[in-house]
Specification:
The protein has about 290 residues and is α/β, with parallel strands linked by helices. The protein has 2 domains: about 120 residues, Nucleotidyltransferase, domain 5 (2-Layer Sandwich); about 150 residues, Nucleotidyltransferase, domain 5. Helix content is about 35%, strand content about 20%. The chain is globular, with a radius of gyration of 19 Å. The longest helix has 21 residues. The structure holds adenosine-5'-diphosphate and zinc ion. The site of zinc ion has 7 residues, from helix 4.
């Protein structure tokens, strides 16, 4: 039987809302810029008022509260986007539509989409990393969205600096964490021009790969995934992949052996559809529960 399901990919710059089926096939979708909660939710409601969906999967920017026992479960918590700070996103949705919800991070839904329909098909443990305006990490462990006390924040791990890199870093919380050193805005600020304008042979990509390789090493040592999937604007630089793999090998010193590295550190397959597809698939799961 086909169920009508909804998805909301709530990003810091844009929202994508869609309806579709349990297989993650998108029937209709809309996109609009993220403004204040009042303005943005008006657009969300205008879309879903038209469709009697049975469940909605929400992947939100954050950090968000995903602990069902917490009094602020369903809230966006500490975001630098001040209008959304302490906003009860899930509560607003539930007040409008009394249906089942998956409530998780934007990176988790993209990872889930890749796990079910993209580069993670056939794998049980999928580590997904997006390198864009920020760096986000989602983890699917034995087919489930991994959750500890909260969701992983693997974009903010600390690293060893590349010799000679004295760039201060752009993370508002930590300065020179992974996101501060290697997200799109860091690449741009260090180089003095946009990443897409740098030559593929620019040393900037060696620097970038050194940081991403360290991240891969840390994720390998702590989560032991079957695959590490990279998405996001910066990873459109295809030359990064061989560089990251080579540096990963050098750093790891065979401590953990990965038999087929080309299939271990890989690019997303669903591209821009990963997140919204994952939302629909996650909605299908909550409907079954
Ligand atoms: P977001 O993270 O906001 O969802 P993206 O994943 O597209 O969006 O990431 C945007 C960042 O990626 C920007 O900092 C941009 O400069 C960088 N970026 C986008 N395309 C490229 C490219 N082809 N090469 C290098 N950097 C890119
Ligand atoms: Zn940080």
């Amino acid at each position: 039987m086909t169920h009508l399901l909804g998805g909301i990919e709530a990003g810091g710059t844009k929202f994508v809302c869609a309806v579709g089926d349990e297989q993650g096939n998108i029937q209709e979708r809309v996109k609009f810029p993220t403004r204040t909660p009042a303005e943005t939710m008006k657009d969300v409601f205008a879309f879903f008022d038209k469709y009697p969906v049975e469940a909605i999967g929400i992947g939100s920017f954050g950090p968000i509260d995903i602990n069902p026992d917490s009094p602020t479960y369903g809230y966006i918590t500490d975001t630098p986007k001040l209008a959304w700070k302490n906003y009860n996103f899930l509560g607003a949705m539930k007040a409008r539509y009394d249906i089942a919800y998956e409530w998780t991070t934007d990176v988790n839904v993209a990872g889930y989409g890749e796990y079910k329909k993209g580069a993670g098909v056939g794998k049980e443990n999928v580590l997904y990393v997006t390198v864009g305006t920020g760096i986000g990490v989602g983890y699917i462990s034995h087919g489930e969205l991994y959750r500890g006390r909260s969701h992983p924040e693997g974009g903010h791990i600390l690293l060893q600096r590349e010799l000679g890199d004295d760039f201060a870093g752009v993370c508002p919380y930590h300065g020179a964490c992974l996101e501060g050193l290697a997200a799109g805005p860091a690449v741009e600020k260090r180089a003095g021009k946009k990443g897409n304008l740098l030559l593929p042979t620019d040393h900037a990509w060696e620097t970038e790969a050194f940081y991403l390789a360290q991240a891969c090493m840390t994720y390998t040592l702590t989560f032991s995934p079957d695959v590490i999937i990279f998405g996001g604007g910066v990873m459109k630089q295809a030359q990064l992949f061989p560089l990251v793999r080579t540096k990963f090998l050098e750093l790891m010193h065979d401590y953990v052996r990965i038999p087929d590295l080309d299939k271990y550190i890989v690019h997303v397959e669903l591209g821009d559809d990963a997140g919204i597809t994952g939302c629909l698939l996650a909605a299908a799961d909550v409907l079954g529960k």
